[in-house]
Amino acid sequence: MGEAKEEVEELAAISRALSLNIGTLNKDTLDSMMLAGKSANKQRIPVILDPVGAGATAFRKEAIQRILTEIDISVLRCNAGELAAIGGVEWASKGVDAGEGNIDLETLATRVAKEYNLVVAVTGETDIVADGSRVEKITGGDRMMGSVTGMGCLLSAVTAAFTAVSPADPTAAAIEALKFYGAAGEKAAASSNGPGSFREKFLDMLYGRKIEENSFGFEKEEGVDVLWQRSSRY
Amino acid sequence: MGEAKEEVEELAAISRALSLNIGTLNKDTLDSMMLAGKSANKQRIPVILDPVGAGATAFRKEAIQRILTEIDISVLRCNAGELAAIGGVEWASKGVDAGEGNIDLETLATRVAKEYNLVVAVTGETDIVADGSRVEKITGGDRMMGSVTGMGCLLSAVTAAFTAVSPADPTAAAIEALKFYGAAGEKAAASSNGPGSFREKFLDMLYGRKIEENSFGFEKEEGVDVLWQRSSRY
Amino acid sequence: MGEAKEEVEELAAISRALSLNIGTLNKDTLDSMMLAGKSANKQRIPVILDPVGAGATAFRKEAIQRILTEIDISVLRCNAGELAAIGGVEWASKGVDAGEGNIDLETLATRVAKEYNLVVAVTGETDIVADGSRVEKITGGDRMMGSVTGMGCLLSAVTAAFTAVSPADPTAAAIEALKFYGAAGEKAAASSNGPGSFREKFLDMLYGRKIEENSFGFEKEEGVDVLWQRSSRY
């Protein structure tokens, strides 16, 4: 929640996961992100990076490079256009939208995962999680999810919460987060008339959804509130 | 979306319209707006200005003057109180709300349109669009629209999207945007219980609304998604 | 609404209440808050303080001390963890959440109220309002209110609006604001499926709710719109 250089190290240190999001980046908030990220690394707290609009401007490209070079990231949560920018390949992206292209996303995700030693979770019609040795595809979700501002940012926060519960296995955390998010989106979209009602129903779904399997540290039928309780909020 | 001096020129240059909004202005964001506006002018990208609370403080008055003097604005999207402040006439405005007054808004809008060579789109019980040679009145909408924060800011963004599709005729773009917005507001209000449900239904309406006439670059029955696709987002 | 040093004194001076909220504090916004607070004090406009995450970082602790020392606050609107940080007692708080503890909140609220000569309005399962000579407990509300981001911040804004109508009796204003807010929350929760639908229904309730008693400057059956009209917005 904080953004001031004066306090982000302290805030990161009392957290159980840190989500860095460059959506409305400026020079000051970038400095704060560097401090927060290094503080989290020192405390062995997992760091999630959402490289919003990575390829849109030189400022964002440089910021992403600086973050990836100086901070150990657990999960890079992005879309295909952002991943392409980070991987240095061409992509028909204009601004921060994903655009379309024909590169092999699985290969690219694996390459970026290896290069920066992190888990790549790239969302699209099919989501892909790659950690360098393994690639998992996740289907589900709904195209309505692309029509609501902040859905990617919220997914990164949710991924951070899952990673907080499972810091030793960020691959599993990212996969479970994407499945969870996609299923909630699918159910919410089924009873929505547009992005306004979708947003409301989606938040209800995220809140009320029960875990379907005895996995990922949950007992069957435990709700997400357990997850929230186990991950620190601030 | 961006606000950093380091990148706003680049972001503006890859856009198809730029909406400048002084709602939570500070010295840094004003500098960024000047850079973004000049970049948009150089690329012949239409610039929309929302002079939030124009008359409320000396800082805002000076900022507006600086923007209007140094940047070519296509559409000035404001309320009556803000227009009065820009036109230098007395108005019973307190803070950033519109207040009430008896000046002839059509005359004032026309005068400001001529002085700064732009289209004035002023909202109120009846909306007025004036470009110096022509005045159009638009009725519709609902008073509930005045009870939701950000409705004016969103209208400016929607006006920018319409202007992106019709940069050569910002008058038509502003008129169509106001009709579209007002109709969506009227329908949403009809099934709302207050500002909370109105906001949800209004976003659904904006999203789902079909264009009623073969005009403004649309085929009949094309939806707003076509408009969004034609205007760049970032 | 403003945050720029260049204008906050002017904005505060044309207001009827000022709500200071340190949620996303930084050095610049703290400076602006000091200017706004002193301007409000000079004009005898009531100032409400929401010490978000007061105990979470040294920066916040120092900021709160500076505000409480240099500005006359009418109502301190906080949760138990924040009150404990201000009162200098131990509390099992981590980050900005309230945490849990066994101190006597009524005693603590009364002590802080006396020390800083203000009204303390502390929310929790039972809300407490203390002004040094009197303690009032308010029940009601719903636990769903704790699951929506910004509910505390909005309550502070609503408290500011009530105090604007009754600046001479901030104790009564805080009590009425808490009753009003809690009743709206209770009714909204009764027909909600989760935080998404709760938020929508809660805003509808806040808007549509009629005052139940001929008190606090209202006629019976006057709606909240009267309150909004009497408190200046900007």
UniProtKB/TrEMBL annotation, chains A, B, C:
Residue ranges that the Swiss-Prot or TrEMBL entry lists as coiled coil: none
Keywords of the record: ATP-binding, Kinase, Magnesium, Metal-binding, Nucleotide-binding, Thiamine biosynthesis, Transferase
* Gene3D superfamilies the UniProt entry points to: 3.40.1190.20
Give the metabolic or biological pathway: Cofactor biosynthesis; thiamine diphosphate biosynthesis; 4-methyl-5-(2-phosphoethyl)-thiazole from 5-(2-hydroxyethyl)-4-methylthiazole: step 1/1
Asked whether the UniProt record includes ATP-binding among its keywords, one would answer: yes
Task: Name any one Pfam family assigned in the record.
Answer: HK
The UniProt transmembrane annotation reads none
Q: Which InterPro entries match?
A: Hyethyz_kinase, Ribokinase-like
CDD domains under this entry?
THZ_kinase (cd01170)
- List the catalytic activities from the record: 5-(2-hydroxyethyl)-4-methylthiazole + ATP = 4-methyl-5-(2-phosphooxyethyl)-thiazole + ADP + H(+)
Cofactor(s) listed: Mg(2+)
Instruction: Write the Enzyme Commission number(s) for this entry.
Output: 2.7.1.50
**Annotated protein name in UniProt:** hydroxyethylthiazole kinase
**Which species is listed as the source?**
Planococcus salinarum
Q: Identify the taxonomic lineage of the organism of origin.
A: Bacteria, Bacillati, Bacillota, Bacilli, Bacillales
